[in-house]
Protein: N-acetyltransferase domain-containing protein
Organism: Parasynechococcus marenigrum
Amino acid sequence: MKLLKFPSIQYKTLIQSFISSTHHKCHPLLSDELFNWFYIRSEINSKMSFYIATESDALVSILGFYACDFLIDSRIVPGLWTAMWFTLPQYRNGIGALLMKELVDTNSCSMWPRRIKHEFTNS
């Protein structure tokens, strides 16, 4: 099992195929415009806002997310919103939870803006 954070845009077709086969062939995220808006925040390095798990080069779990701001106690706080979290049934033994744990552990709200800037501009 291999975990990949911020996969390159080369994984886009694989991720969209995964969504098509696990959800529906007409899922809204199969629209390139919507997919790109959610997950490709910078064309500079062509990284996507996903954590994925693969086995033998096949996707088994995905966790998509994007940066956003939250209003907490009259303060605007940077954070993450998850959008598209799915694991194949035969792999539901903790891999999806591991992806979420990795996302939370490596992207605290206070560090998110610096981290995302680094991931997309300095790789």
Notes: The radius of gyration is 15 Å. Residues 34 and 101 are 26 Å apart (CA to CA).
